[in-house]
Amino acid sequence: LRQWPNAADAITRELLRGVAMGINPRVVARRAAVASQASLRQMLTVARTEQLRAYRESSRDLYKRSGVVEKYKRLCAKNARTCVLCLAVDGKIYPVSEPMELHVCCRCTSTPVIEGYNIEYGASGQEWFDAQPHTTQRQMLGPARYDLWRSGKNTLSDFVKIEYSHDWGKTLASKTLEELS
Q1: Which of 12, 60, 76, 109 is 20 to 30 A from 123 (CA-CA)?
Q2: pTM of the model
Q3: How far apart are CA 20 and CA 26, in angstroms?
């Protein structure tokens, strides 16, 4: 990595350009990796995480400014690429004053909750997970967590904990097996 201040400036410049112009995080990551001499993998993680955080926070700011939206709902993709943490908290309602808890490379989004309007978004993350073949569930949870879940002793939300970082605020994290037993 070149000298840190120059690398940080190059990464910041590419992230700002990417957010402002709606450039795919993969393209931003490639540009940031070349400009900073950081690894492409590291830059993919940073670009995905921070561009999506910027978009979510922009939406939350618009909700707050609207004077109409007081709450918003978390939505996750329902597919095998979605992490179990996001499936577990899918549908959670937040006041617009509070950012949602995230994790690195989180793909969740939000939708406004407006009094008197109820928009259905299909199955919840838990319902989607429950409907998947056992092989998909086991692959997503891993063998030990899958066994705990199948035993009926744990729901998906039992696998989630919220941690706090002075830099990033509240973050989603996975409970350890020791914490689960």
Answers
A1: 60
A2: 0.86
A3: 15
